[in-house]
């Protein structure tokens, strides 16, 4: 089934070229069905890439999904045109009176900063608080997950001795969770971060539970026990070359960056990366959309 996005969004032509069903706004308006409303707060500097990756995952389900894109008004984006932001992105002031079935907040390459040092932290906290009464279920990714853990549950983040960079195996600690329905016992997920949250801090809070854990990089997936907050500390939506582009960029800049682990054949960056996370990555987004949004959200969002 289709994903419903603006016809002129760059992701539209990319997804159509991949034979993904993208529905025009005109056609969607003439279907007697209420699409799920999902708000994507994109904090990544590479906004077009990130919005395309996440929309690709949301499109591969039997549900019609209407996506609104949001940016932080208090932050000036440098890696995307002002025209793109003006055309496709809304600010919090423009959506604060609306209600959504789902909210996705992405990561951001700022995890080495204290939360309060981030220029849009106050605005983001306002979005967090607004989501309690205006969003049915939230999905937080990487730094977005760490920020939400801190804001809602007081769980701190910690600096790592070295960057967690590569594709890591995860064990299911709660295989009965619908969030990981269809996962293998051992799955893989890309990670790219300098900080982490600790397993002990999460399970010490009776309102939280850990769903998947990596012996190499710690907690990968957690959630609130009321299923309103989903935390993913990696990037299951990444493309084949996302870690490669990051690695090549840092090498070109002369940074001390290790080859991403479990990514290149024989750890040789001259070889084509192997995708080993795509199936579970798709399942995670599909399961979230189905079991935690569609199956439980009210038909009339005013009843939220």
From TrEMBL:
Pfam families: HTS
GO cellular component: cytoplasm
Superkingdom of the source species: Bacteria
One of the GO BP terms on file: L-methionine biosynthetic process from homoserine via O-succinyl-L-homoserine and cystathionine
Subcellular compartments: Cytoplasm
Keywords of the record: Acyltransferase, Amino-acid biosynthesis, Cytoplasm, Methionine biosynthesis, Transferase
Enzyme class of the recorded protein, top EC level: transferase
Residues reported in the UniProt entry to bind substrate: 163, 192, 249
Molecular function as annotated in GO: homoserine O-acetyltransferase activity; homoserine O-succinyltransferase activity
Active site: 142 (acyl-thioester intermediate), 235 (proton acceptor), 237
Site (Important for substrate specificity): 192
Reaction equations catalysed: L-homoserine + acetyl-CoA = O-acetyl-L-homoserine + CoA
InterPro entries named in the record: Class_I_gatase-like (IPR029062), HST_MetA (IPR005697), MetA_family (IPR033752)
CDD domains associated with the record: GATase1_HTS
Documented EC number(s): 2.3.1.31
Main location: cytoplasm
Family per similarity comment: Belongs to the MetA family.
Protein name: Homoserine O-acetyltransferase
Organism in which the protein naturally occurs: Slackia exigua (strain ATCC 700122 / DSM 15923 / CIP 105133 / JCM 11022 / KCTC 5966 / S-7)
């Amino acid at each position: 089934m289709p994903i419903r996005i603006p016809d002129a969004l760059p992701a539209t032509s990319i997804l159509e070229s991949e034979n993904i069903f993208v529905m025009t706004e005109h056609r969607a308006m003439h279907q007697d069905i209420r699409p799920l409303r999902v708000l994507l707060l994109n904090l990544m500097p590479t906004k077009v890439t990130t919005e395309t990756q996440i929309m690709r995952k949301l499109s591969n389900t039997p549900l019609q999904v209407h996506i609104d894109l949001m940016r932080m008004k208090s932050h000036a984006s440098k890696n995307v045109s002002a025209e793109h932001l003006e055309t496709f992105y809304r600010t919090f002031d423009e959506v604060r009176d609306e209600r959504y079935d789902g909210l996705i907040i992405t990561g951001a390459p700022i995890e080495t900063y204290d939360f309060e040092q981030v220029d849009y932290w106050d605005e983001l906290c306002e979005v967090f608080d607004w989501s309690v009464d205006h969003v049915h279920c939230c999905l937080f990714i990487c730094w977005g997950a760490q920020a939400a853990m801190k804001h809602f549950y007081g769980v701190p983040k910690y600096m790592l001795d070295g960057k967690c960079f590569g594709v890591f195996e995860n064990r299911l600690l709660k295989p009965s969770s619908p969030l990981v329905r269809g996962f293998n016992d051992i799955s893989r997920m890309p990670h790219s971060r300098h900080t982490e949250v600790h397993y002990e801090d999460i399970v010490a809070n009776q309102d939280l539970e850990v769903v998947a854990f990596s012996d190499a990089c710690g907690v990968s997936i957690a959630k609130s026990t009321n299923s309103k907050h989903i935390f993913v500390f990696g990037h299951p939506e990444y493309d084949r070359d996302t870690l490669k582009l990051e690695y090549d960029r840092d090498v070109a800049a002369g940074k001390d960056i290790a080859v991403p682990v479990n990514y290149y054949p024989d750890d040789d960056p001259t070889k084509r990366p192997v995708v080993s996370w795509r199936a579970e990555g798709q399942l995670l987004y599909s399961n979230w959309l189905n079991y935690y949004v569609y199956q439980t959200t009210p038909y009339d969002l005013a009843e939220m």
